[in-house]
Amino acid sequence: MPVTPEEKLQTHLMLELEPVVEKELNRHLSMAKEWFPHQYVPWSLGRDYDGPLDGEAWSIEQSKVSHEARESLIVNLLTEDNLPGYHRAIASVFGRDGAWGTWVNRWTAEENRHGIVIRDYLTVTRAVDPVALERARMHHMEVGYEATHGTEFLHGAAYVSFQELATRVAHRNTGKASGDPVCEQMLARVAADENLHMIFYRNLLGAALEIAPNETMRAITEVVKQFQMPGHSIDGFLRKSVTIANAGIYDLRLHHDDVLVPVLRKWGVFDRTDLNGDGDKAREELSEFLEQLDAAATKFETRREERRARKAAREG
Question: What's 71's domain CATH number?
């Protein structure tokens, strides 16, 4: 079969970017701090559950976190649980050879700690129903994970640049909303990993912009317009997302202001002079979409404040 222009570009990019991957991998390893999940879990609060050990069954009164924080913790953990699917997706895009493969395995190992520590915390503190959590995990992993961008390198790299930052924001704000200093400390540690992952991917795609500006700009625009969090297949995700957004843990304003805009600014997409043709068109589409998203975020904030004011008036 003849090689398509897209395949030819992808091969060219993978070869050209390998030194960048090696450089960013070394930077990451120099900055990443070793940490141990067991040190962030208050084990002294633990006790046996019902079942073979004949302990105490879980009940909602045992949870010390708010309903909103509980929903966000569940979404965050179930998202982390699908790591096997993410590993397969990223390995399919980046490959398993050289610095690319080393990064994929390192990233996977670091991400695995996140699921370990969050689950241990939730189980020990009885923050969520462990039976419902396990059933949700089984369902979510049986659904699996399929990246919307398939094995296309530019789309994949653009997606994780935004997604890692979105996850960092979600973890940090969940910790703050929990009302538990232990939870906040734990999720701040997880968020620090996510930030380093974002920097790796952001710098990688920034280098791709220099090599293939028009094609990379098109990929960025398509990813931003179609963006979904990796946990979107979680059962009840829409309902949980509304709860999380209403609590200000992760909403359209945060997505626009704290995720999309900082990454796009770092890439300098609106200041570039090397775009033409479809690259220029993609940038115009991106600008229009950001304006629409900004307006939608403002509308949501206004309605949320109105709802909060009505609730305060009723309770007052």
Answer: 1.10.620.20
